[in-house]
Specification:
two-stranded antiparallel ribbon; 5-stranded antiparallel β-sheet; about 0% helix; mainly beta; about 80 residues; single chain
Length: about 80
């Protein structure tokens, strides 16, 4: 259904906030899944906000352990 030129109930992309461990340190990162967007790789940050690197550039996804989605958008295209 379209109202005011926006699709109701479906987002263009999804935002997922992850909690994980990297080298025995708690980390958090925000992953934006948007097939039509040109987004940067997620920043991996320690819980005190220190930038540790970028997922897939500086930090391999396989090095993150106990990954858990702690928040996400609903009804997105990547759901």
């Amino acid at each position: 259904m379209v109202a005011n030129n926006y699709y109701e109930g479906i987002s263009v992309g999804d935002v997922l906030i992850y909690h994980a461990y990297y080298q025995n340190n708690e980390v958090i990162y925000i992953h934006i899944c948007c097939p039509a967007c040109n987004t940067l790789p997620p920043e991996i940050r320690s819980c005190n906000g220190e930038l540790l690197g970028y997922l897939g550039v500086d930090i391999d996804d396989n090095l993150l352990t106990n990954k858990k989605v702690i928040w996400r958008t609903r009804k997105g295209v990547c759901s």
